Structures are given as C-alpha cells and as structure tokens.
Amino acid sequence: MDTELVALSEAVGAACRQSHGDSLRSRRLFVATAESCTGGWAAQVITHTAGSSGWFERGFVTYTNEAKIEMLGVRAETLEKHGAVSLETAAEMAAGALKNSNALISLAITGIAGPTGGSPGKPVGAVCFAWCLRGQSPEAERCQYEGDREAIRRQSVIHALTGLIDRARNMP
After folding, report:
1. At the topology level of CATH, where does 27-169 sit?
2. Domain map of the chain by residue range?
3. What integer pLDDT is reported at residue 118 of this predicted model?
4. CA gyration radius for the chain?
5. Which residue has the higher pLDDT, 64 or 21?
6. How many CB atoms are located within 10 Å of the residue 29 CB?
7. CB under 8 Å to 97, separation ≥6 — which residues?
8. What is the DSSP string of the chain?
9. Is the pLDDT at 91 greater than 60, yes or no?
C-alpha cells in the first residue's frame, strides 16, 4: 500500500480515537463500509492500521443490484428508478450498512470505474458517495473522476475516507 493510503488509514483511526477517547470499543462506536465499484478497497485501507478492530466493525461488498437489495436493504424501486449509481442508492447503502451492523458511522461508494459501462447521464468516472451517522439521515454526493479504472477507484477510496474522517471528527 502506498504512503498516501497508509497515512489515510492512520488518519481514520486517529479521527475515531480523537472523537471518542479510549472508550471507543466499550461504546461500540464502529465504522461500517458498503462498497460497489471499489470492491472492498476502502475497508482494506481502514484495516491496514494495526488496532483497526477498535474502530472497524464490518464491510459489505455489494457489486450487484441483488447484493445491494439482499445485504443492505436497498429498495428495488430505488434501483429501478435511479440506478445503482445514484445519490439515492448510495444513501440507502449507507443506511443499510448501519442497519445491518453495530457501527455508529458508515460510508457507501457506488460508481462506474470503467473502462466500459458509462452512459451520457452517467459517464465512466461517475461515483456516488454517502455517509451516515446512526440516528441521522445519510449525506450523499456525486463526483466525476478522470483516469483509468484504477485511478477512478483510488480517487473514490480517498474521497470516501476523507469524508469519513471529517464526519468522525465532528461526531458528538
């Protein structure tokens, strides 16, 4: 793993520990991930840091629509109306990760990493993200990335984890 991702992994842990002190484990304040186009890469980066079992609870890799429905409770209607790469789907993925875990905060990533699969409304590089705190509504956003498949996936992981850090630092 390159130094930027290692530093990001350490920053996730520091943000979780900073927000919740030494009682992180006893308060069950864990992170859950729900990933599609990144295939578990965000979870891999989080768990790179020794001791990550103190803040990482579980990850869901839901590459197909069926997996999103079965594992995260994404509504079939959402997928039919908005597609797998949408703010709505990302939000339901993040909420589903919390519903199906003991985590307090979750992130979701769904997108088109390419090189094929894009459309005029959702070109290759379109990625939707969501973050959710237990008891709150998910926050979702869409980004458009350039580059090859690996570059798009890497940028997505960095963006998702940076958003997670920001939210973890501001948790009550």
Report:
1. Maf protein (3.90.950)
2. 27-169
3. 93
4. 15
5. 64
6. 23
7. 32, 33, 34, 60, 72, 103, 106, 107, 108, 132
8. --HHHHHHHHHHHHHHHHHHGGGTTTTT-EEEEEESTTTTHHHHHHTTSTTGGGTEEEEEE--SHHHHHHHH---HHHHHHH-SSSHHHHHHHHHHHHHTSSEEEEEEEEE--SSS---SSS-TTEEEEEEEETTS--EEEEEE--S-HHHHHHHHHHHHHHHHHHHHHT--
9. yes
